[in-house]
Structures are given as C-alpha cells and as structure tokens.
Amino acid sequence: LFRSTSLGPAWTVISRHGEYAQNETECNTPQQVAVANSLLTITAIAQQTTCGDFNPDGSVRDSPSSWPYATGDVQWAKLNFKYGTVTIRGKMPAFGTGLWPAFWLLGSNCQATNPFTGDTGVGTCPDPGAIGYTEVDFPECYGGTSGNWCQFHVANPSFGMGGGCDAAYSLDSNYHIFTYNWTASGITVSIDGTAISTCKTAMTYGPMFLIMQIQT
Questions:
Q1: Hey, which end of the chain has fewer CB within 10 Å, N or C?
Q2: Pairing between strand 186-191 and 176-183?
Q3: How do residues 52-62 score in pLDDT, each as one tens digit?
C-alpha cells in the first residue's frame, strides 16, 4: 500500500527519455506517476513531449528532443536486496495497446545511473551480456500474441539464459498478485499463488533493485 499522496524518499521518480538503445519513444515524466487511494498509478499517453537524458554527473548526455509519448517510471531509491521475496498487487494494460509495461529487477550496480539514463554501459552499469549485468523481468509484457504476450525472464549476464528460467504466458488487465521468491538455489515466480516458473539454476549475482514502468 502507498499510504500517502506521494511516493516518499524510498522511491525515485524518473525524469528522462527511455532507453535509446532499445529505440524507445517515450519521455518518462513525473506527471504520469500518481499516488491516491493507496494505489500507485503509472499512465502512458500519446502526447508530444520533450526530453533527453544525462550522464551520471548530471551533464547532458542526449540533448532534449520531441517524442510522441509520455509515461512514468519509478525505482527504489536506495533499497536493494539479495535473496528474499517481492510481492506486488498490480495490473497491466490490456494486450493490443502496443505498450511495454514491466515490473523488473536490475543489478544494484545500475541503481545510481538509472535515474540519469536508461542506457547501460554507463558509469558502473554494465551492458547486457557483460560480466556483472543482471536483470529479472517478472513480468514484462510486449508484442507476442494474446496467449503469451507476457514473460518471466532472467539475464545473468546474457539474455536467453534458459535453464528452466524463462516462461511466456497470458495476462489480462485485472489485478493480480505477482510474487518473486529468490533463494540461494533458485527463483520461483508466481501469479495469484500459482507458480509459472521455478528456476533451479543457482542465482549467483549480487543485490538487485525494483523498477516499475511503462515503455513504448
């Protein structure tokens, strides 16, 4: 539950362009993040919006330009963890909207740089596939078909890790309980109490932090 009318110091509300390396077309703006009635709401709208991104020292990395969408993006400000459980009651946009929503974890070596730029390979944040890059999506939803437009996915450090980790599944736009349980021997991801993937491959990577966002 979000008990106030703002996220508070435990969270960072992102204000910058999305990840250029993924050809994203959105500006993440604080105006698209709202807290009311104990709920956090992130809204994506088709609206020309100007944004760029920054280097970790705050200097301009990509100069501001106009993009067709405005959306929201939040992350844990300081908290990160190794082993434990994350439970989220939330819902995703409906299939067919063309949006790219995700609840996901990223290695803490990217926690300080992510508020400045969504691109990796910046500061202490390694590129996907490089030693030290870790990402867990639980879920992210995009493309595909109505039967499997969402996925649970692990990158440690490369995508396509396999080993029983990855799973694609259908997801409607109702509220669901998403649970991510991480131990020294593996991870289990559940939706409404039903496991959709139990990955027994040893998860040897370091602490991670939570991001909740909608990309376009």
A1: N
A2: antiparallel
A3: 999 999 999 99
